[in-house]
């Protein structure tokens, strides 16, 4: 075996890097949806944390058990796990269905932020 790239072409590829190439192939709409996922994720984490500090409780039983057992950092881990699963599933989908994964993450998390903010308005 030599190191000329014949046996390991993905490791010695010239030109665009793998990550850059993957992002370049994503449509503008999908990139905006992934940005919305990031914003919704942070918003959900912040509003959940603030709600817990106000004395509210987490309604998701899995997240509630994780928070009670491991603390709030478990919530961060659950969110990152969900994004990781979403990214893995996105690679398996054809491009025409590519918007489903970020939309499937962004919509419920955005809804959770709105519900949390509504609860704050009712409590205060």
TrEMBL record:
Transmembrane segments: 32-50, 70-87, 99-123
InterPro entries per UniProt: DUF5658
Residues in DUF5658 domain copies: 36-119
Keyword field: Membrane, Transmembrane, Transmembrane helix
Pfam families: DUF5658
Signal peptide location: none
The keyword rRNA processing appears for this protein: no
Name recorded for this polypeptide: DUF5658 family protein
Organism: Halorussus aquaticus
Lineage per the UniProt record: Archaea, Methanobacteriati, Methanobacteriota, Stenosarchaea group, Halobacteria
